[in-house]
Specification:
Helix content: 25-40%
Number of strands: 26
Number of helices: 16
Radius of gyration: 25 Å
Strand content: 15-25%
Shape: globular
Length: 577
């Protein structure tokens, strides 16, 4: 039997976990002998000798990169997997030879193969039977980033020691862990809704999930996780900005510290090796448990008058900028937070609140055991984030919305949940964040079918073929057509007012059109859609056999997550509802 491993591949830190059946709990695993760290930096470096270094070894080499230009540093490679804009990739130090996919593959191979060696067992059994790796839920909100899940899945499938790969969303994995913890802590299966606020270095995912216990509960019951809705912000911005998560906060903190110390003119953009090193100093300062404890203690001290915290000039920690030491005060922490994080978090909470109202979630009930709020991710451990969330939802001193779910396990909740899914202890119910239909300009064709194919978060089951939707928005039959159809309509969920967004009109790229050009034009062809375990959509084509009248598969299904490779530029269809 091979290993079953869960992976939280983060923008700034990554963690790996297995479910320990003897202990009855997930646990962190590492490739580094003697390491007790819950996570490893998501950093890769080519050192002075041309060798690759990863994790903490790589991070420790970053200061040397200012002295030795041959050292190449790669960060944020997970978030850049869907990126195809050359200027953004080049700004991150990536090239055709060393793309984000190449660096991600090297990084994962280093840790996964190392973990297999450390877990031991006969050499011929050193394989991963089931690998569950997590992707940001926010990737599903943008057609540009849909590619990310498919790219991540393909990378993992290339490892000959990995037998099965599933990509799940980070909030879904976190929900799996919290539901499991609730059962462990109370003896009762969790049945209700969860709001997962996943604040990492690169992304903010706020996701509403629904958790049900199968078979009436009991100690052996398995939870079923369903994504109801999500919103978020992150590193994959269309304008190429850093994003609105932890990285953006540290960037703002360093810039404001330099402005306050007179080392940077107001409005001037910091850059260069000295600033990169300062960024790393600040990141380490914020991660230190003693500093986090100091901030939490100070917030509690000034709980009745937050203005005292916000104006305090007391130094929390210091960072170096060149030969200069720059203090980071409580006032500076708050000023950077109010600039970079607070408005974005409020905006996204307001958006998910609309969805919770639509789903009739009583999210203000502080005594409920059927609705839980949980912060996860490295930045979710930051006290100012926790304070804003608790104020937003009017938390009380005896509030139950954070109780009995292992909410303190913020940093490892995603990897622990992924390990539970890999083990089969918790199941994920696949759902769609968009619906697919067929669009054509031809008279009397499928235009009307696609026009009404606007269903958001329709439940999907992996492996099943999902047909074109009829005017009632329910699965109908394969679309039958005489000859080829080369254009699609894709609905993109709901807008801020809860109305369906207008679909995009997608035209297949030339290589795919050429493949379909081999279809005879005088026979009936059927088109349909399916979804795999990782939520990746596939387009199916079947052609009717002249002799038998049966429909036979025409070529392999085409993965529809590869928007950049499959379709020409997308335009919004101007349809009225």
């Amino acid at each position: 039997m091979g290993q079953k491993i869960g992976v939280d591949l983060g923008s700034t830190y990554s963690s790996f976990a297995v479910f320990d059946r003897e202990g009855g709990m997930p646990r962190t695993v590492t490739a580094v002998q003697g390491s007790t760290a819950a996570s490893e930096p998501s950093v890769a470096v080519i050192d002075m000798s041309g060798s690759w270094q990863y994790g903490m070894n790589a991070k420790n080499m970053i200061p040397l990169s200012s002295l030795y230009p041959q050292i190449r540093v790669f960060r944020a490679f997970k978030m850049l997997l869907p990126e195809n804009r050359r200027e953004i990739l080049q700004d991150g130090g990536y090239s055709r030879e060393h793309s984000p996919a190449d660096v991600t593959k090297r990084y994962l191979d280093h840790y996964l193969s190392g973990i297999l060696n450390r877990l031991g067992g006969p050499e011929d059994e050193r394989e991963i039977e089931k690998l569950v790796i997590c992707a940001p839920e926010v990737w599903g909100k943008d057609d540009r980033t849909q590619d990310g899940k498919a790219v991540l899945s393909d990378i993992c499938k290339e490892f000959d020691y990995v037998k099965s790969v599933t990509v799940v969303s980070e909030p879904a994995a976190a929900s799996a862990f919290f539901a499991f913890s609730f059962l462990k802590n109370t003896g009762k299966p969790f049945d209700g809704r969860m709001l997962i606020i996943d604040y990492g270095g690169g992304t903010l995912d706020i996701t509403l999930t629904e958790v049900h216990a199968e078979n009436g509960g009991g100690s052996e019951s398995r939870a079923e996780i369903k994504i109801l809705d999500s919103t978020g912000a992150g590193e994959n911005q269309k304008d190429g900005k850093l994003g609105d998560a932890g990285i953006a906060y540290i960037h703002a903190l360093c810039r404001l510290a330099l402005e306050e110390g007179g080392a940077l003119a107001e409005g001037e953009a910091p850059a260069g090796k000295e600033f990169e090193l300062m960024f790393d100093f600040a990141e380490q300062g914020l991660k230190q448990p003693e500093n986090l404890a100091k901030i939490r203690k100070q917030l509690k001290r000034y709980s009745d008058d937050f203005s005292e915290f916000a104006s305090s000039r007391e130094t929390v920690f210091s960072v170096n900028y060149g030969m200069k030491t720059v203090p980071v005060t409580y006032a500076l922490l708050n000023r950077a937070y109010e600039e970079a994080i607070a408005p974005v978090l409020k905006e996204q909470l307001d958006m998910i609140r609309i969805s919770m109202d639509a789903h009739k979630v009583d999210y203000m009930d502080s005594g409920s055991d059927s609705f839980k709020i949980a912060l996860v991710g490295g930045f979710g451990n930051f006290s100012l984030v926790e304070r804003q969330v608790k104020e937003y939802f009017n938390f009380s001193a005896i509030d139950r919305r954070l109780k009995d779910i292992g909410a303190e396990m913020k940093e490892v909740a995603v990897s622990y949940g992924a390990s539970l899914i890999a083990d089969g202890t918790v199941k994920i119910k696949s759902t769609a964040d968009r619906s697919l239909g067929i669009y054509s300009h031809r008279e009397g064709s499928a235009q009307e079918i696609c026009r009404f194919a606007i269903v958001y978060r329709q439940d999907l089951e992996p492996g099943r073929v999902y047909h074109v939707l009829n005017e009632k928005g329910k699965p109908s039959v394969f679309l039958n057509s005489m000859g080829r159809i080369e254009e699609f309509g894709v609905s993109r969920g709901l807008d801020e007012e809860g109305r369906p967004r207008k679909p995009h009109h997608l035209v297949l790229k030339k290589p795919v059109r050429e493949r379909l050009s081999h279809l005879p034009v005088d026979i009936y062809v059927r088109y349909g859609f399916s979804i795999d375990q990782s939520g990746i959509y596939y387009f199916h084509v079947e052609a009717q056999d002249d002799d038998t009248g049966r429909f036979e598969t025409f070529g392999e299904p085409i993965p529809l997550d590869r928007y950049n490779r499959l379709f020409e530029d997308m335009i919004e269809l101007d349809w009225d509802y």
